[in-house]
């Protein structure tokens, strides 16, 4: 094996656009694991709806979730590290979304809280295997929040992004998909979390491989000794990678692993 630690984004990378894990991708990931590499899902999802993907791969272990804001152990459901944010820091973003009637959820490492639901959001959660909990807007938010996620149409999110880019605040907002904007701790990222994990494992940067497809993957692609972007990535993501592979619809992860991980 050329790499000891392999980080895989889930949506748009490991899974097809229909959120299917193909047999070819599963077999290649399993082979990388059997050859001795630690496989780490590195996703914008929370642990609860990332674990079924790990189960489908037939694996267990550490997952980097919420764009690096929470690193967790799938077996014990323990949080190894998290970047927490205060409820007061989210107030401005929440109020903006309420006024604009845009759907959002608020997340701790293992909980997803919502204050309302639309048919579109309901379908989206079903597609991602998420089960949000309805909260009363007047109730205080729990401690240990890690992410605020806005869901909407591309044109609406483009306008939101333009507005928020003009704000001064102590958090960061990042486009984690065409239909999502995530707000989280300014130091949280997949790249930072992957670097922390590699250091914990005593693995050199050159022995780390990462495969991703979107803007929230740029940090881990840049950190990894081998950063791979799938063909369906935006140009800026491709530029952050060392190499390109086939798209998520063409078993790109399997192709990359067989081309670079053990040849």
From TrEMBL:
GO terms for cellular component: cytosol. InterPro entries: Cof (IPR000150), HAD-like_sf (IPR036412), HAD-SF_hydro_IIB (IPR006379), HAD_sf (IPR023214). It comes from the Bacteria. GO terms for molecular function: magnesium ion binding; phosphatase activity. Pfam families: Hydrolase_3. This is HAD family phosphatase. It comes from Paenibacillus rhizovicinus.
């Amino acid at each position: 094996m050329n790499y000891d630690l392999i980080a895989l984004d889930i949506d748009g990378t490991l899974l097809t656009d229909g959120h299917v894990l193909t047999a070819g991708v599963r077999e290649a990931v399993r082979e990388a694991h059997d050859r001795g590499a630690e496989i780490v899902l590195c996703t914008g999802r929370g642990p609860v709806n990332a674990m079924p993907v790990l189960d489908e791969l037939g694996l267990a272990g550490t997952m980097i979730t919420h764009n690096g804001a929470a690193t967790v152990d799938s077996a014990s459901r323990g949080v190894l590290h998290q970047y927490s944010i205060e409820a007061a820091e989210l107030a401005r973003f929440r109020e903006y979304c309420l006024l604009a009637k845009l759907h959002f959820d608020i997340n701790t490492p293992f909980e997803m809280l919502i204050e309302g639901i639309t048919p579109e959001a309901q379908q989206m959660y079903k597609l991602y295997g998420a089960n949000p909990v309805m909260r009363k807007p007047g109730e205080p938010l729990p401690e240990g929040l890690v992410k605020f996620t806005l869901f909407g149409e591309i044109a609406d999110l483009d306008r939101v992004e333009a507005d928020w880019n003009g704000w001064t605040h102590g958090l960061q907002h990042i486009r984690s998909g065409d239909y999502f904007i995530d707000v989280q701790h300014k130091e949280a990222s997949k790249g930072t979390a992957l670097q922390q994990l590699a250091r914990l494992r005593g693995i050199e940067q050159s022995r780390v491989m990462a495969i991703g497809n979107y803007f929230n993957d740029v940090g881990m692609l840049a950190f990894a000794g081998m950063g791979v972007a799938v063909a369906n990535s935006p140009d800026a993501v491709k530029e952050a990678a060392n190499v390109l592979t086939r798209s998520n619809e063409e078993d790109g992860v399997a192709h990359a692993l067989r081309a670079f991980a053990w040849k």
